[in-house]
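Fill-in record for Transporter substrate-binding domain-containing protein.
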Amino acid sequence: MRYILALLFTLACSSIRAEDLYVPRFNEREPWTPYIVELLTGALARAPGATPDQWHWVETRMTQDRAMALLRTGKELDVYWSMTSAPREQGVLTVRIPLMKGLLGSRLMIIRKDAIDKFSQINTLDDLKQHIAIGQGLDWPDTAIIHAAGLHVVTSSSYETLFQMLRAKRFDGIALGVNEIDDELAKQHDPDLVIEQHIALSYPAPVFFFISPRNPALAERIEKGLQLMLKDGSFNALFDKRWRKAQLVNQMKNRRVFQLPNPLLSPQTADMIRQHPEYFLFPPERQAR
C-alpha cells in the first residue's frame, strides 16, 4: 500500500506542467531592464499561478512596434513593457500601473558643447519650436508627443545613429528620460557631449506591462502582484534601490520645464493618471486634450 501511494504521488508530481512564460531578453539600450524584471518576478511570486512559471528569454533586437505586433499574436512573447500609447494598448491586455513612476516623461537633452549658448537663450515654448531640433527614435511614442506639440523632431530607426547625427549637427539635442540620461551619456565616452542644464520637457508617459491577449490569467496575476507590492512597500523599495530619488529631483531643479500634453494617451490611461498621481515621482500637470 505504501508503495502504491508513493507511486501515485510520483505520477501526480510528474503531471504538473510548468507554465511557459516568454519574456524579452535584457536590452543594453535600456539599463533599467533588470529593475523591470525584478518587478515582474516579485509580482508573479505574490500572485502565484496553478503551476510554476518556466521563464524563456526571447531575443527582441527589433523595433518596439514589431515587438508589440509579436505580443498580439501570443506566439513568441507573453509579456512586454514599454511607454504606453493608445495604439499600443490595442489588441493586448494592459496593466495600468506605471513601472517607472513616469520618469521617461521627464526629458532632458544630451547636446554638443558648442550648443550650450544656443540652449541658454531658450525661454519660451515658441523659442524651442523656432530654434531647436530634437533627435528621437523613429518608433518612440515620445516622437509623436513632441511633434504634436509643434517642436521640430528629427528621427532615426537606429539608436546609435542618433548620436552620429547629433555629432554631425543634424539636430541640436537628443531628449532622454531623466532616469536614463546619465547612463546613456557615459556610454558615448565623448567629452564634446554634455547634459543640457537649462530646460526640460515634461509630459505624462507611463511605462506599462503589456500582456498577450491569449493569457488573461497572466495579466490578472501581474496586476494583483503589483498592487500587493505597492501595498507592502516592496515596489518603492525596488525603485529606490535602482534610482536615487534625491538625484532625480535635483536633476529637474532650476530648469525651465515645458509641460506638453500627451495626445497619445487612451481614455483609460488618462483616467488612471488623474486618479493616481501618487503613482508618479513627478505628477503630470497636464493631460491629453
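KEY FINDING: Confidence is low (pLDDT under 50) at residues 1-16.
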